[in-house]
Specification:
heterodimer, A: 6 helices, 71% helix, B: alpha/beta, 4-stranded mixed sheet, two-stranded parallel ribbon, 7 helices
Chain lengths: 155, 185
Amino acid sequence: MMHAVAIPPFERFYEEQRSEVMGLLRRRLGRERADDAFQETFLRALQAYGRLDHGEHLRAWILTIARNVAIDTVRRTRPSEELVEPGSEDGLAAYEELAPLTDGLPPKERAAVVLRYGYDLSYDQIASALGSSADAARQATSTGVRRIRRRRTLP
Amino acid sequence: MTISQDVDRRFRDAAADLGLIDVGYDVVESPIGPLFVAVSTEGLAQLSFHPQERDLERLAAFAGPRVLRSSRSVDLVRRELDEYFEQRRRAFDLTLDLRGLPPFTISVLGALAKVPFGETTTYKTLAERVGRPRAARAVGTVMNRNRIPIILPCHRVVGSTGDLVGYGGGLDKKLALLQLEGALP
């Protein structure tokens, strides 16, 4: 029988992931804005942590939250500039594998599709990563998939 | 990538202020050594002289997985302990989280909580008070496994002949607590 990976006490998860999260945020936002984004990232994670079903993919999950916080921060502080599209600098295989399909999708749809089909997360988990409701996560995923389909059938 | 102490502290404080944690814990300094203190949403869940590696997992299992070291979460307990050790407090006003304990244990701890500052009682007397006069040994086991010593004053329980008998934190600590309370000649 398969056993789900247990969810570790948040302290252990935080100690394990915080350094990489800070690295990602500093690369995206610079040292000064990274500090606030760091707090925001782990507060969002805490908010959703009690609703996780299992302890798998926690690294992918927190890095996705961090990327979304970075996107929100850039949006808030420099509304006119174009967003930097999340790259594959963190070496996430699923993310890269899906890149040919998901490139060019709006960031939220792209994140939703990757988390759903690349990392097999539930809509609740995706919702917490994106800071939205489960319905909105489902909506973003299906809109993203429809958009991919449409693109692939068109010449 | 190192996280500055300030950034780390701000996150932990915000988490506690926003009520986002199930269990906040920290180490509280005291005259009888450092004390591991864990507070859940229900109340004080653990106070230990010698915390174990698996304590966080055990706390998460009954109180929820959002277990985080947080100085702010233990502020109230720290203040009452400080007052106690400075001889400015004789009784604690703390809510306790006794979830998961069997009924016998809870009734023994209830009787224990009524033993006043500066007095001692015996295992046998406690057993009588919970209506199980022959269960002195079982009462001893409950004392030995007490997750919230000092607040639940198992240091005030001694043998029928006046021997200190034993203490989870070490006999020196039991002696120090009884001396602090003036319970020893």
